[in-house]
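Hi X.,

You mentioned you wanted examples for the new student's onboarding notes, showing what a folding record looks like when two proteins sit in one file. Here is a clean example. The first protein comes first, with its sequence line followed by its structure tokens.
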Amino acid sequence: MVTRWVVPQNFPVRWSRGRSHCHCRVCPSLRLCSGEHARASLPPPSPPSLPPSPPSLPPSLVVSRSHACALTFPHRSYQENSHIYRQTREPSENMASGVTVNDDVIKVFNDMKVRKSSTSDEVKKRKKAVLFCLSQDKKKIIVEEDKQILVGDIGETVDDPYACFVKLLPLNDCRYGLYDATYETKESKKEDLVFIFWAPEGAPLKSKMIYASSKDAIKKKFTGIKHEWQVNGLDDIQDRSTLAEKLGGNVVVSLEGRPL
């Protein structure tokens, strides 16, 4: 059996009695050992070892939000991970869909909400109902053109303002709306603003998602509004009793001058 010694190429040598020999002192000759006879018998180098992959979680495992942050930032505390999650996963309502509210929308709401003592001409110009929609680039909520009812139109071009408002709603898209409802109870006559979110079944899914995610943005601009109504079909909104229940329940006896 022949023992093979592995000698590197630039192995240090030692001089003795005028001759050079390998520092390991095992070469058969006294000449300078280059290590070629040892390197020729070496096996091919093995590829570098890769770091072990992390264990995969089973698909049935449900990870909570705090646990997900702990897995992402294991060196942080629970409070720090919760704060990071709120910053990265829970943005503000305007950033949820990237939609902002135009200033004209807020102005229309303030004009309908505040009932100032004004002349008859100014009262006629006040809006009874109005629709809001998304802009073409889907980044702003604006006032929809020619989709409004004025108080002065009632009795002249509009016989029933509520039925006229229902006709303004599109059947294949979503809308936001404000309706100034006039109703009577057993005790008195009242007027209240109603915020309506129109999301019919025939609307595209993408439109429903954008309008639903942007609803809080416009709703928070309508401060002090009491009634909110989400409608998903004509059968619900054509029935006046459904709106009467939103306004006051069984105490409402008439809506827009028409008995229930």
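Then the second protein repeats the pattern, sequence line and then tokens:
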Amino acid sequence: MVRKPSSPLQQVIRRLSEETEEIRDKCPPGQVMLKRLHSSGPLPINIVASSQYKELHMQKCIAKTSVGNNCVQIGSEIAIVHNFFTIGCTDYVLFERFLSKENFFDYPVESSKLNIFKVSRLSGTMQHTLVRHLVTKYFLLPWKNNYHMAVPILHCL
């Protein structure tokens, strides 16, 4: 792993990242791609990930771990993304869901029919699931009393 006596730690890290990329290249291609490798976590307890990423490139949009780009729908839940990671060739998303999700308006039609919600109170616990359970990207608009309006980004649907 170490080729020269200078900077051995940097060389080991570089070799390990090269091995990870080789494994990643052998994974079957899908509709999504993880990008922007990092190692700053967070990760679920007792999980050793092959790689961690800051971005998920979907067919029509990009979800990120940065504030302002990290609100998504996972299954039927609205959540905040904290990390993307892989174990072998399987991609996962680490997220925290909102505990309260209700209609933002009721007239002329319930906002939930348009996938628009009033959300509040993050759960405080991290969960992870397969990236394929991520439905679409949302953006959050601040609303009164610690509520946010969660609106799907139309070109991501």
